[in-house]
Amino acid sequence: MPAISPTSSMIEQKYTTTLKRIGAAIVDAIVFLPLLFIQQYYFEPDKNPILYLSWLTFTFLVQIIYSILLHKKYGQTIGKWVTGVKVVDISEDKNISLIQSIRRTLCFSIVELAGLLYLFYKTVGQQIYSQDDYENVLSISVLVWVAVEFVVMLSNKKRRTVHDIYAKSVVVKL
Q: Which pLDDT score is estimated for 129?
């Protein structure tokens, strides 16, 4: 009896993760809502910019550690777990390594870091800035990054993004 091989349609279905990835990002954002509530309630950039920047740096690092550790250990964050997708090595026969997890996270972290560095620059220069300054810089950076990621994802059969390509990983449906 001949072996049954998966059809190309079945293989492509495995990589149709765009909506699940968006859902995962929303769930992961919800995971971090308590930090945002703390920030809104306790930290005001106008009153104590150094404390505010320290808080932003702390939350930035927490998000990086969350992503790196969960992707390394489980191949997924809470959001990916809820939506039923997983990050695996490009070979698809093993989980990603710590280095791959760092590379995946590093790509977007650079975008966020640009916003933080902008605020540090303004603070060190003792220029007045507001929450809007940070949000504007970060929003534009994130919008450009997401657009690039989306275009790259749509340009290949496995729906790999820039950070997937850099990390030699792929996101698959479970």
A: 59
Q: Retrieve residue 141's tokens.
A: 């950076």
Predicted local confidence at residue 136, as pLDDT: 74
Pair 21, 163: CB distance under 8 Å: no
Can you list the residues of the chain whose pLDDT is less than 70? 1-11, 126-135
Q: Shortest CA distance to 68 belongs to which of 104, 112, 32, 115?
A: 104
* Contact present, 115 and 96 (Cβ < 8 Å): no
The pLDDT value given to residue 112? 86
Residue count of the chain: 174
Q: Cα dist. 160→6, 48, 50, 96, 150 in Å?
A: 20, 42, 39, 14, 9
